[in-house]
Amino acid sequence: MGSGRTRSISSRYLIFSILMFIAFSLILLSPFYPLLRMGPFFVVVTLVYSVSMSVLFSFLAWLFVERIVVRRIRKMITDTERFIREKRVSEDGSYDELAELRNSIYRMGRKLMDSLEEQNKLLNTMDLLFLAFSHDVRTPLSIVKNLIHELKNEDDPEKRSTILRDILGELEYIERIAGQLLKFGKMKSGMEKLNCEWFNPVELLNDILAKHRWRNRVDLKVEYEGEPEINADPVKIMEVMVNLIENAVKYSKGRIEITVEMNENKFRFEISSVGNRLPENIERRIFGKFETFDGSERSFGLGMYISKEYVKMHGGKIWYRYKDGNNVFGFEIPVLQEG
Predict the structure, then answer these.
(1) Hey, what CATH topology would domain 197-334 get?
(2) What is the pLDDT of residue 41?
(3) What's the predicted TM-score (pTM) here?
(4) Does CATH place domain 132-189 in 1.10.287.130?
(5) 3-class SS at 256?
(6) DSSP string computed for 131-158
């Protein structure tokens, strides 16, 4: 394809050279018009001179165009085609209009390819997300369906209460993974924003512990005097706290200790639980998308990823470490959000 285009360019410049030859002939011949009336000898000499000089000047003009313009355009076409195939071009040390045009085409092509790659990654992620969602929802829906059949045939009030509690648990699980899906989609589309306000993070944490059944397993230690106040998004900070606490409860059978520290600049939350250290391959992927620690089918694998993204939105950091026989998860954010 590229060779056909450059042949077409070369043929156009060949026509240009012929026209230049005619023009040069007329220009060079014009001063000798009086000699043409002096006899055949002068006519022949004049024509030979003008044709020779025209050929010379036309060749020089064609050579200039071929070397300076056509080769540069041919290189530009070759580099563009190579960029489409391999996403790379060769370096060009020249700095003129053609070089600037070539570089502009390269930059536009690179932006287009990057945009297409990003769109493909997003589509692949969304496909994986919907597959995981449909898989995770199918099991609790089947359980709810069977429980409803049991409920219809059950007359014992205590057993009916147990069945209803189980149904509620399954529906809460579906609601939770649907919420995670919505949050993930908003993050990927850039729609997730912070809604910051001043609030007491210790009061928020006490409210979380009071509403969950695992509150009796948690020891809360606050290392701050006075009334702690931070400027952050309380909904997102609550989500991070709940994810870290649920994770600790799920993978520890003993007591769980939460430590809250704060100074003028930073708010720090850590949760520690006794247990075996996580394998190295899990440590590296612990805050990734669709990652579960034990292969559980009851986990969507987005909780820790969402927590990491929420902490990053606050300009903070999140971590996992193993210390003195304890798995420790924590995060730290600035007390005051900028902007």
Answers:
(1) Heat Shock Protein 90 (3.30.565)
(2) 46
(3) 0.56
(4) yes
(5) strand
(6) HHHHHHHHHHHHHHHHHHHHHHT---HH
